[in-house]
Amino acid sequence: MPKRRLRGSRKAAFLAVAAVLALLAPGPAAEARTDTPADTPAGPGIPPLTDERGRALTLRGWNLADKEHRGDEALADITERSLRDMAAQGFNFARLAVFWDDLEPRPGHYSERYLRKIERVLDWAHRHRVRVVIDAHQDVYGPAFGSHRGIPAWATRTDGLPYRPHPDDWFAEYFEPAVQAAFQHLYEDEDLRRAQARMWQVLADRLANHPAVFGYDLINEPMGRMRPGESIPDAARRIEATQLTPMYQRMADAIRRVDRRHWLFVEPTPAAGEGVPTGLGRVRDPKVVYAPHFYNAAMEAGRDYDPASGWLPAYEAAVVHYPRAMRVPVLIGEWGPLNSSLPNMARFYEDALTSMSRYATGWASWQWCYGGAYCAMDEHGRFQLNKSRTAEPYAAAVAGTVRESSYDPGRSAYRLTYAPSRGGTTELILPPAPRGWRLTLQGPARADATRIPPDERGTVRVRAAAGAGEVRVTAVPG
Fold first, then answer.
1. Phi, psi at residue 404, to the nearest 5°?
2. d(Cα 386, Cα 180) in Å, to the nearest integer?
3. CA-CA distance, 300 to 217, in Å (whole number)?
4. Which segments of 331-396 does DSSP mark as H helices, in order?
5. Residue 217 pLDDT > 80, yes or no?
6. Which 3 state secondary structure label does DSSP give 136?
7. Looking at the DSSP assignment, which residues form a beta bridge with residue 135?
8. Element (H, E) at 16
9. pTM over 0.90
């Protein structure tokens, strides 16, 4: 299999964040997942994502990223097999990493070949009914700093400051003076601001009408320059408030000149992963999604999950502040452990999925590939240990108001209760299961299937008249 650049350990930087946080306190895990953000303690005031028909959506899937290949070979590791296999396991969402350095290798010169490669991946996604968010990905700013990808070398200004690679801890490279200077220039230099906005406008103009596109993630894991004596949480909030918020507004305004339809996904700095509430301000646009990442410092360093550490409830308590205040949906753009085979990882997946279901409208795990470490699948195309736990029943689209959407993994039982608010079709996705699925309905509705054969993905469509009373759908093995 081709060598792939997988996300490396972040231990130096993230453990530094963890060390300054005192707000961590353990909390109990739920026995069943309840995907009703508007009605749970964690989620009041957090609206759902919706589609063009106004249906409440749940997006579940994986990241697609090829960091190794560039130029003529860009995106070579992403094939139709990836989209086909994802869809076959019941996933309906992909976050596709694209790189500015490939799109615009020289100032003002946009690669037609690269745009066609992106469109080819989107064609596969549409064929397999997978919605895609285009992710403007960067790692350690870009190729001016070794083998990293993202912002072009021609858009990198370091003020002559030093940069030292950290082969065993690449996330620590974000704290190198040259990298921090490059981010500050990106945020503050007018010509670089225009270039970044123009890049997004070119990309959105080209992709706006593709049926697989759902939205745009404006920059992956943005960082910035720390001031002397400043703590990481304080630096993160300052950078988010004074540099990221206006940057997102510039890019939103540029995109809206060519595309007024798709959702815009905005990220905090990675400090949010350790339970630091974001300092992001309001991005003035009607279709903004808050898209933090969900990583733990110790687990990124290869350690096992510690349920007693309090990290997960602290993350959940912090992550809901921004979407509540701004009234925007939440989607977790990346998550997943480096080593899913450790003894407590079954518990981690249970706790993490339960937590996210309380406030997030969906997630994309890192990453769909075939091999080891973060890959969803092994080299034989089978789920790595515990990663199959991400494939469970859910309501992909609900034409009405959700009263309850819950999954009990112990009984493999899924229940959806909703009040139809308009004529429309509600869609349930049931992943392959050894005994298949059996559905029952209560209320004035009908489904296009009540049994799903063993080891087949099921997509069940339920129709109910608006105002006809509550509908309850239950799916159990058999």
1. -155, 140
2. 37
3. 23
4. 345-359
5. yes
6. strand
7. 97, 217
8. helix 11-19
9. yes
